[in-house]
Every structure is written in C-alpha cells, then in structure tokens.
Design brief:
Elements: E1 6-9, H1 13-24, E2 29-32, E3 44-46, E4 54-56, H2 69-73, E5 88-93, E6 99-103, H3 106-114, H4 118-139, H5 141-146
Parallel strand pairs: 1-2
Antiparallel strand pairs: 3-4, 5-6
Helix pairs in contact: 3-4
Length: 150
C-alpha cells in the first residue's frame, strides 16, 4: 500500500498545478479524477461523434498563460513546453453576418466590437481595465503591463 502526503481530487489544470507545487515542495501527492485523461476541460480529446476530430472540451481562452506565475515557477520550458499564442484567439460569427473577434491586441478587439456597437465596445474597454487592475493586484503587475494599462 502506498502512502501519500496529500490527495488532489480532480486532475484538471488547477489540480495538476497544485500537485506540481506540492511535489516541488517535497511532498508525495497523487491526483485522482473521474475522467479518463488528466487535464480536465483543458485536455484534448477525440470527439466520439466525429472520429479524427480532436478538440478541447472547455478550453478557448489561453491568452496570458505564459505570464502566469506557475508557468515560470514550474520551469515548464525546461521540460520541453513551448506555448504558441495566436494573434487572433476567438471569433464569433453572428446570424446577421457580423463577426466579433478577440485579439491579443486589445485595440483590434475594441475596433471589432465598435464596428457593431460603440457603446458595447466602450463597456468592454471599461471591463478590461477593471479586470487588469484586479489581476495585477492578484498575481502581479505583469498582467497590467501586458494589457497596456500600466
């Protein structure tokens, strides 16, 4: 019988990050998950209804991953992790033919929203500023600087 210092319930990305920090601190930890693969909603799986099509169950927002403290704390690059980010990361096609786009460059995102509704674009800018200051307080000024609000 194996003895552990801790058990993480759920092998989604938050559980795996927690497990990595605890292991780095010298604890023997195991993650248990009801799912067939680790990674939770961020894992890439084959669609049962469309063989050969792989997708992430809940993963669409990856902007700023490499700025997160855990990404550098855990020295993932040392293990061969290379994270590629796209300039355009979300497009929503609407029934009326309009397209909302989220870009890494906020001004491009703003222009996409403003082309449809200037008031919505202004509310988005306000929300992003509030979020940026919240994240800066939570995890450090890197987020604020990255979003161009420093």
């Amino acid at each position: 019988m194996t003895t552990y210092d801790g058990i993480i319930i759920g092998a989604g990305h938050n559980g795996l990050i927690t497990q990595a920090y605890l292991a780095k601190a010298g604890l023997k930890v195991i993650s248990l998950d009801a799912g067939p693969v680790a990674g939770g909603g961020l894992s890439t799986v084959e669609d049962e209804k469309h063989p050969g099509f792989f997708h992430n169950l809940h993963s669409y927002f990856h902007r700023g991953i490499t700025s997160m403290p855990w990404f550098t704390d855990l020295k993932l690059a040392r293990y061969g992790v290379e994270y590629l980010e796209n300039d355009l990361y979300v497009s929503v096609l609407q029934r009326d033919g309009n397209v909302l786009q989220w870009w890494n460059d906020f001004e491009q995102t703003y222009r996409s929203f403003a082309a449809i509704d200037r008031d919505d674009a202004d509310r988005l800018r306000y929300g992003v500023r509030c979020f940026a200051y919240f994240m800066a307080a939570l995890i450090g000024l890197g987020w604020l600087m990255r979003l161009g609000h420093g």
